[in-house]
Amino acid sequence: MKKIKSLLGTAVLLFSITQCDSQIKTKNDMENSNNTGITKNEIIVDVRTTEEWNEDGHADCSVNYPLDQFENKIEELKKYDKVVLVCRSGNRAGLAKHKLVEAGYTKEIENLGPWQNVTCKVK
Predict the structure, then answer these.
(1) Annotation: CATH topology of 23-117
(2) Most Cβ neighbours (<10 Å): which of 4, 46, 105, 121?
């Protein structure tokens, strides 16, 4: 019975995170956007473990902030107009997004899902 309650609690948490997964845009984000809709001051953060990052590959234009260390990077992330989050499937990126919102980040956050969805732009 305890396992069922635990699983139900986890499902409710994931559902609530998904439901509050809307993007937050400020006037500053809109002004800093180029014609492709990508803000100039953005960062792509892969929240997989260091082992996954090294062994399974990663996008060259992303940084690796593993989810278990993510809270230590939030203040640094607040200087960006847009934070794009990726992982293996999108679940951990959703948890990271929730942590950003809880910490008071009010600019745009995008959960791009799997890291393979990242397209690095040539500057």
Answers:
(1) Oxidized Rhodanese; domain 1 (3.40.250)
(2) 46
